[in-house]
Amino acid sequence: MIYRRETGRHPIEVIDHDGFRSLHFDRHSVQSRMALDDPLALVLPYTRFLMASLLFLPSPTRALMIGLGGGSVAKYLLHHLPALGLDVVEPDPQVIWTSHEFFYLPRTERLSIHKDDGCHFIRAAQKRPAWPYDLVLIDAFDEAGMVAPVYGRSMISGCHALLETGGVIGINLGKSNKALRSQVLTSLDAVFPRSWLRLPVPHTRNEIALAFGRRTGWRDLESCRRRAVSLGERMSLEWDQFVDTLIQANKPPFWRRLWSWEGA
To answer: For the chain (length 264 residues), average pLDDT per consecutive 10?
Structure first.
């Protein structure tokens, strides 16, 4: 252990082991992980699968993240998308400090970190005029799992209201809280009817939900195949696997959606 700090919410621990640096809020779960010899790499599988959002929107310019952790996803996006402006909402100042000091999250004018509760930030953002986001990522976990208010219906509706017409929302879901996960899926059906997809993360207890500001269809899936090739030239991730998993996880309803969307 190289760092430990007690906060009012939970302890923060940073541990180096076998070439990796990990952020913990308890000893039973990992909040973030970084390879010491490749700090930019996305080590945890769910963080890589969250990047499947880029199959539908390869060059976002304004993004919002709810939840920071060690900053792996924020760091990756800022490095690989030089035109991106990124807002991150994180309520814990010690988590923010730790992400900079131990996980090398850069301090740059392209990154704005808001020390705020995610639900409060979304409510306030809807009341002020602002450019919409074309990418929204929700990844708010604590030592108990998904932070329930952040995954509530009003939060998902609020993110939809802040989303550009052609934008994408990526949501990291855990499978340990089945009731909350079921509520999220029901909310997605209500807020994004016929316009969201499931992306299980193999060999983990995570699943990514991808929701779209507009209906997508067969032509978009074909474009995903092409984008997988071009994205692979810039970012070494499992792009083909993302596409294959999307198809497998969402059929037969997936194919019915595709054909119905084509005619919509």
So the answer is: 86 96 88 97 98 96 97 98 98 96 98 96 88 94 83 94 94 90 93 92 95 74 85 94 90 54 48
pTM: 0.92
- For 232-248, the DSSP string reads HHHS-S-HHHHHHHHHH
Check if the beta carbon of residue 63 is closer than 8 Å to that of residue 100: no
Q: Which domains does the chain have, with CATH numbers?
A: 3-235+243-262 (3.40.50.150)
Residue whose token pair is 């030239």: 233
Other CB atoms closer than 10 Å to residue 193's CB: what's the count? 9
Work out the angle at residue 129's Cα, subtended by the Cα atoms of residues 128 and 133, and round it to the nearest 5 degrees. Answer: 105
**Cα of 4 vs its chain's centroid, Å:** 26
